[in-house]
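I am still getting used to backbone structure tokens and would like to learn alongside you. To get us started, please write out a protein record for me. Start from the sequence, derive the backbone structure tokens from it, and show both lines together. Once you have written the record down, we can walk along the chain together:
***
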Amino acid sequence: MHNHHSHGHSHHHASGSDASRRIGWAFFLNVSFTIIEFIGGWLTNSTAIMADAVHDLGDSLSIGSAWLLNKLSDKDANSTFSYGYKRFSLLGALINGTVLTIGSIWVLLTAIPRLFDPVMPHAEGMLIFAIFGIAVNGFAAYKLSAGKTLNERVLNWHLLEDVLGWVAVFIVSIVLMFKPWPILDPILSIGFTLFILFNVLRNLKLTVMLFLQAAPDKEVVKQVRQVLLARLQVAALHHFHIWSLDGEHSVMSVHLELKSNITIADMKQLKQQLDQALAKFEFAHTTIELEFADEACRDQSSVDDVQH
């Protein structure tokens, strides 16, 4: 008969409630400022500010959805979602990464034609809104910078993109007060958008990989394998899996083949050793099945463990 061993470790990651509060701050700041931007774009006759307002509107919708999903992810496990709702936070990161990618492409498609037909905006009005924009979005980005979740990291790029955008508007507005060079606006817009797009795509790739249940860290997989095989009572292992629920909380399962003539006392000692050795990895949940030397694995017909 197989023996199962499951345990969980408490750790000090940022709690879901803290993440929700930070994302909530970012949401209300973004929505309020988006409304002000639309008014400002109309008053200054600035297509750059109006375009940023449209972009911020998309950001607000994304941050709002992330806020709801993050609050949902903190709910307790139940019979339907036995691992809890942590994965909903990952869904929020996927949605936001996708929206921000589309938004960045839209900014590029808007900015590139302006290289050939630049528009001269109201420079003084741009300067005032640029200072306001840097302050509001900078404060929101600062609030989210304390976050550790993948969702918060993706949202932080939303806000950093806006901060860099307003820095570009700030610089251009000052230059335009002295020189009629409106082409600087699209040049700077293209530059910071490409920078943000590179980082967002990197985070989006990680999110998609986690959704597909890829191992979150190959080095950790290697270290855990070594820890398991280092036990004197263990002859071999198979069906070894590590995957992440939300980019923070990982799950591990494995079948351990025991050496012959192992006693109940040896098995108890093995469990204690595994408890201590695996604690540093801070798995949210582990399942370890112990198999005797002359015992056939009931999952042998399934896909064998992939060697990492």
The two ends are 28 Å apart (CA to CA).
